[in-house]
Amino acid sequence: MSTKPPRVVAELGRPETAAETAARKAENSRLYRSRKTINNLVLSLLACLAAVVIIVLAVPRGNYTAERDVDYVQVAADSQPSIEQTLIVPELPDGWKANIAELRHSSADDVTSWYVGWVTPEENFAALSQGFNANENWVATQLERSLATGTEQIGGFTWTVYDHRDSRDDTGNVDYALTTVAQDSSYVVYGTAPLEDIHLLAQSVADHIAQQEG
Predict the structure, then answer these.
(1) CA atoms of 151 and 180, how far apart (whole Å)
(2) Pick the CATH number of 72-213 from 3.40.50.360, 3.40.50.1220, 3.30.200.100, 3.40.630.10
(3) What global pTM score does this model have?
(4) Rounded-to-integer distance, Cα 158 and Cα 181, Å
(5) Which residues cross the membrane (predicted)?
(6) How far apart are CA 97 and CA 120, in angstroms?
(7) What is the C-alpha to C-alpha distance for residues 181 and 189, in angstroms, rounded to an integer?
(8) Phi first, then psi: what are they for 138, rounded to 5°?
(9) CB-CB contact of 120 with 193 (8 Å)
(10) What's the rounded Cα separation, in Å, for the pair 94 and 133?
(11) Dist CA 167 CA 32 (whole Å)
(12) Contact indicator for 83, 114 with CB cutoff of 8 Å
C-alpha cells in the first residue's frame, strides 16, 4: 500500500511537516466556520428585514386621524359615575375630532385623570388632561417637564403659560400649554396646534368650569 507523499509547500520549497499539516488543516477549518457564521448572520438579518417589510406593508396607513372619531361626550357620560368631580366636556367647533377619550391613572403619582385628545380641522394635535386632586409632579409630567414662561387670563381664570414653540428642539406634543387649578381639579391644555386653537380649547374648558362654580 503506497503512502501519499507529504505536500510540498511552495513558500517553503519543501514538504510540510506533520505539525504544519495539522496547523494548516486547523486554520482551514477555522476559516470555514468563520465564513459559515457570517453567512448565517447575513441570512438571519435578511430574514428579519423581510419580516419587517411584510409587517410594514400589511399595516394600513392613513393620516393623523387614523379614521377614528371618538364620541368623547358619551365616554364622559359613561365614566362620570365612577368619579366624584365633574368631568369637563369642552364644546368645540365642527371639524374637531377626538381620537381618544378615557380615564387614566398614574400609579407613580396616584392621580386619576380625564384625558381627551383631538385632531383639529387642520390635522394638528390638541389635548385636555383634567387631574383630580393632582400634585405638582403629575402636572409636570403632563407638560414633559417644561418650564413656565408667563401667565394669561382666559375665560376669567389665570392660566400658567408654557410656550416653547421656538425655544426647544424637541417639544414632543407640548409645543404650547396652559394650566390652571379650579376646585379639586388641575387642568392642562396643550398640543402642537396653533395658538388660537389651544386658546379656543382653554376658553371652552373655562366656560365649563364657570358653569360648575355658578
Answers:
(1) 10
(2) 3.30.200.100
(3) 0.68
(4) 9
(5) 38-59
(6) 7
(7) 12
(8) -60, -45
(9) yes
(10) 32
(11) 57
(12) yes
- Closest Cα to residue 188, out of 160, 208, 163? 160
Q: Extract the C-alpha cell encoding 119.
A: 385632531
Determine the residue type at 42.
Answer: V
Q: How far apart are CA 43 and CA 115, in angstroms?
A: 46
Residue pLDDT, tens place only, 189-198: 999 999 999 9
Contact 173, 162 (CB under 8 A): no
Longest dimension (CA), the chain: 114
- How many angstroms separate the CA atoms of 188 and 115, rounded? 10
Among 214, 213, 207, CA closest to 128: 207
Q: 213 is written with which cell numbers?
A: 362654580
Tell me which residue has cell 413656565: 148
pLDDT, tens only, 4-52: 566 555 555 567 677 767 777 777 778 777 776 766 666 667 776 665 5
Residue from 213, 165, 163 nearest 185 by CA:
213
Q: Which three cell numbers stand for residue 120?
A: 383639529
Domain ranges of the chain: 8-58, 72-213
